């Protein structure tokens, strides 16, 4: 099982550390060729416009779309979620368009642009997870087979379609490895 974390910009190192704690030696990924060797990829938080531009420049966007088509699992956190969406409100920025959802960037507003909350995710068991939001997007609409695993005030913040997983929050900034473990299960299905 070969897992990569897209390391163009953003907090990829935290994901690498998290996977290491789960006993997985994940690799930082910076080229399309490296993407082609993966069974699973994480797109970290950061600045979605920047990551999107760099993905396009290096042909990584096409490589990801092709690999997902062949069964690669993909998990996007925050900016990663934005990049997986096919509809980004008021933006024509580059994207992968792999999830049929609409997202609104920086949707929690400037005053409360970062916050944390405890949230129950049935798929991860009865204990709540600590969800850390940093200038996070809202998912305003979910379509075509995309499942909501957790929401806040009725807004989906953790979604899944088959082997595609996306969260508006950052589990890699906590000590809780369950969501990464859940992703590794998707890689192996
Ligand atoms: N606000 C960022 C964006 O729109 C995402 C923030 C994050 O990834 N923590 O791209």
Q: Can you offer a commentary on this structure?
A:
It is a single chain. This protein has helices at residues 12-21, 32-35, 48-57, 60-69, 79-84, 178-188, and strands at residues 3-6, 27-29, 40-43, 73-77, 85-88, 99-104, 114-119, 129-134, 138-142, 147-152, 155-161, 164-167. With 189 residues, it is α/β, with parallel strands linked by helices. It has a single domain, classed as Rossmann fold. The strands form 3 sheets. The chain has a 7-stranded mixed beta sheet with strand order 2-1-3-4-12-11-10. Strands 5-6-9 form a 3-stranded mixed beta sheet. The longest helix is centred in the C-terminal third of the chain and has 11 residues, at 178-188. The chain is globular. Residues 45-48, 78-79, 82, 105-106, 134-135 line the site of glutamine (GLN).
């Amino acid at each position: 099982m070969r897992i990569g974390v897209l390391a163009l910009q953003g907090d990829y190192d935290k994901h690498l550390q998290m996977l290491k704690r789960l006993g997985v030696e994940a690799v930082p990924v910076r080229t399309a060729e490296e993407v082609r060797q993966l069974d699973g990829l994480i797109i970290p938080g950061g600045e979605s416009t920047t990551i999107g531009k760099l993905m396009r420049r290096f042909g990584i966007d096409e490589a990801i779309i092709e690999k997902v088509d062949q069964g690669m699992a993909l998990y996007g956190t925050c900016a990663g979620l934005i990049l997986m969406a096919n509809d980004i409100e008021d933006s024509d920025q580059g994207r992968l368009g792999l999830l049929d959802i609409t997202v609104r960037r920086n949707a929690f507003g400037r005053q409360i642009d970062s916050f944390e909350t405890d949230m129950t995710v049935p798929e991860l068991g009865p204990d709540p997870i600590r969800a850390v939001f940093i200038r996070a997007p809202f998912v305003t609409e979910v379509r075509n087979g995309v499942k909501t695993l957790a929401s806040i005030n009725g807004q989906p913040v953790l979604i899944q379609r088959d082997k595609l997983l996306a969260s508006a929050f950052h589990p890699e900034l906590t000590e809780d490895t369950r969501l990464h473990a859940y992703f590794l299960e998707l890689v192996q299905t």
